[in-house]
Amino acid sequence: EFLTADVKERVTKEEFAGRYEKVYGDLEISDLKVTANLPEEEVEGEEAEFSISAEMNSLAGPISFEHTAPLRKEERNDAENWYVEWDTTFIFPELGAEDKIRLSGTPAARGEIVDRSGNGIAINGTAYEIGIVPGQMEGKEQEIISQVSELLGVSPERIQEALNADWVQPDYFVPIKKIPTEETELLAEVTSIPSVVKKDVPARVYPYKEAAAHLVGYVGPITAEELEELAGQGYSSTDVVGKRGMEQVLEERLKGENGTKIYIEKTDGSEVVLAEKEVVNGENVTLTIDMTLQTKMYHELNGEPGAGIALQPLTGETLALVSSPSFDPNTATLGATGQFWQELEENPLKPLLTRFKQGYAPGSVMKPITAAIGLNQGAITTDWTIDVNGLQWQKDSSWGDYKVTRVTATDGPVNLDRALIVSDNIYFAQAALQMGAQGFTEGLNSFGFGQEIDYPFPLDPGNIGDLENEIRLADSGYGQGQIEMNVVHLAAAYTPFLNNGTMLKPTLLAEQKTPQPWNENLVNDEIVNQINASLRKVIEDPNGTAKTARIDGYPLAGKTGTAEIKEQQGVQGTENGWFVAYNLDNPELLIAVMVEGVQDKGGSQAAVNRVKNVFESQR
């Protein structure tokens, strides 16, 4: 309504408003500030002008300009007033009536994730994009679609939909699916079909496949929900984002900033740049992981449900972090089919579950922690003994039918050394009762229970539960009850035995300073020496629960654990097997492994054998 009559004849209100809305919307214009320098005195005559200045932000950075606004005096509705002689230069001064505003982008290279030796865990590589050229199908459309569907696992309906897209021309390449470059047999078979060809395209590549999938995660196309959640952070509908693992955790560092240029394309083909933001590639991130060790630990689990960690116990660096079974992140990132995800979700072994972040009942690997707390508090001593014959014990009749059960019947006095060697549940149940609920809880808190773990990968915090109930307190002393901890926390809880009583924070990023104390002075040197000596015997003593882990000339210390998962006493439950071990003479490696469902696989020996194999491979 402020435009002159001539302009209003050339430009409709809808065209005028629509162009501003489109330009400002497409360029993500914000913080617009317009200043008008109006004449101080009344202007004589029918024409005038005044200067205006404009400032704004755009997705390519700030834009500013000055412009002169011509005015014309016109009479409307029996009143005389000034109106603006508007043209396209009011949008941007260099914009002619036939010129176009263009927006171009330079995608940022996503930062890579590498291990401590520089081996790529998540890298920018190449994939094969399989497509069809419609004009070469030569009347065999349905036959070709059927063959491609079977080989690539893409439904015929999706292939037909792609071929029927509005933009498709007979000689165009119509993309159907991306596949990893190592699938050479599939490539040869599918491209032998008439009209089917491949292109090399940039892709995120995970060289170690299943061995690091839960740790590293994968990337995928940004969803509408993610785009809304990340509004204002430089994402567009064509971007990819981290979906799981470190790809998701490190998203802000890895993604970089796309380069953007806003320019006017003149009718003579020249360009006038309005704003330009240089591309900033994503940051490369180095993990403390040793992928050789990571791969060895993953393959030792052999597809069985379980988790494991290898820690450098004097620095806290995470050398390996595995979850089994797993999935191929290359398939996930290249556009997995619904069938791929359905099979993973319906698999009873739950390959999508990140087991190293989950809390589990630790069973008897809890006992050295219980011993350390009890000795430090003075609730027990190394000479404190129990004298309970047989397999079962209860404090008194107030426990009803409930009894603590040993793995092996023991007659005669049992001290701490013996209790650790044979893994005596009754001894540690009584030790917890000696400490009492408050004392034991305080001790567990000092070992990191109930605390969020300061770790780059989100982990479930250790859980204690209510220890006011005496039975639960007794059960917690040997790692049952409501005690839960993840395998990373468990490994960290053993570091005081190699660091003069200091528990270290586990680290995962190479840039992190090490060692980082989590809690100090948990135990003195005397207690450390006593527990280490007993854990050495767990492996060396003929009665030790981990005697099969013995390696000639390699002084391992360790502790086994079997945690029973059941609804009530007297009912057969499932069992998880645990083993934690480290070399006392050369403490550069501490390994903790948990294997699920070991009730018919030798209990904790399922974990013992795997840990032993890893240590032997590292000698």
Q: Number of DSSP helices? A: 19
Helix content: 25-40%
Which band does the percent of strand residues land in?
25-35%
N- to C-terminal distance: 85 Å
How would a crystallographer describe the biggest sheet?
5 strands, mixed
Low-confidence runs: none
Description:
With 619 residues, the chain is α+β, with helices and mostly antiparallel strands. It has 19 helices and 25 strands. Helix 14 packs parallel to helix 18 (525-540). The model has no long low-confidence stretch (mean pLDDT 94).
Can I get a quick summary?
The chain has 19 helices and 25 strands. With 619 residues, the chain is an alpha+beta fold. The mean pLDDT is 94.
Relevant terms:
elongated, 19 helices, five-stranded mixed β-sheet, alpha+beta, 619 residues
Write the layout of secondary structure elements.
Layout: H1 5-10, H2 13-26, E1 30-37, E2 47-58, E3 61-76, E4 79-84, E5 100-106, E6 113-114, E7 120-132, H3 141-152, H4 156-163, E8 174-180, H5 184-191, E9 196-205, H6 213-216, E10 219-221, H7 224-229, E11 240-242, H8 245-249, H9 251-254, E12 259-265, E13 271-277, E14 285-286, H10 291-301, E15 306-312, E16 317-324, H11 329-333, H12 338-346, H13 367-377, E17 386-387, E18 392-393, E19 404-405, E20 413-414, H14 416-422, H15 425-446, H16 470-477, H17 487-493, E21 503-504, E22 517-519, H18 525-540, E23 556-565, E24 574-583, E25 590-595, H19 605-618
Parallel strand pairs: 6-14
Antiparallel strand pairs: 1-2, 2-3, 3-4, 5-12, 6-7, 7-8, 7-9, 10-11, 12-13, 15-16, 15-25, 17-20, 18-19, 21-22, 23-24, 24-25
Helix pairs in contact: 10-19, 13-15, 13-18, 14-18, 15-16
